[in-house]
Design brief:
By secondary structure, the protein is α+β, with helices and mostly antiparallel strands. The chain has 2 helices and 6 strands. Helices cover 22% and strands 32% of the residues. It has a 6-stranded antiparallel sheet, with no helix packed on it.
């Protein structure tokens, strides 16, 4: 009887699911290859300014600087980064981040199409006239 119980216990133990830690998810495939940092320079300047330069072994390059020159001492940043997209396209982005938000510039970013035709002058005149009428409509001086 002890042998049967021991055999059943061994069978249950070997049939139990084996849990392994999941592999880290990657945006560009299942690679978990470590990428070396070739260069990492960070200089903290006076009064909260900084300069950062990073280059990795897989071709990512980041360069940015910032300083608390924005409204109420907020940090204004400017810089650029580049990398190679999974399809082989070289990506280069310059940016400014300030009180107007993040403003990237790159040839790869989509651009709105041009207006299909010129706006006639009478339409522009009507828009200008409407802009002068709007404040008068809500004037309480009358």
């Amino acid at each position: 009887m002890k042998f049967v119980v021991l055999a059943l216990l061994a069978a249950v133990a070997t049939a139990a699911p084996q849990y392994a830690a999941p592999a880290p998810a990657s945006r560009y495939g299942d690679s978990s290859e470590e990428v070396p940092i070739i260069r990492h320079d960070f200089v903290l300047g006076d009064y909260g300014g900084y300069k950062l330069d990073v280059e990795t072994g897989n071709g990512i390059v980041v360069s940015q600087s910032g300083s608390p020159d924005g409204p109420e001492g907020t940090v204004v940043k400017a810089g650029e980064y580049s990398y190679t997209a999974p399809d082989g396209t070289p990506v280069h982005v310059k940016f400014v981040a300030d009180e107007n938000g993040y403003q990237p510039q790159s040839d790869l970013l989509p651009v709105a199409p041009a207006f299909p035709h010129p706006i006639p002058q009478f339409v522009l005149d009507q828009i200008a006239f409407a802009a002068t009428e709007e404040p008068r409509r809500y004037s309480y001086d009358d």
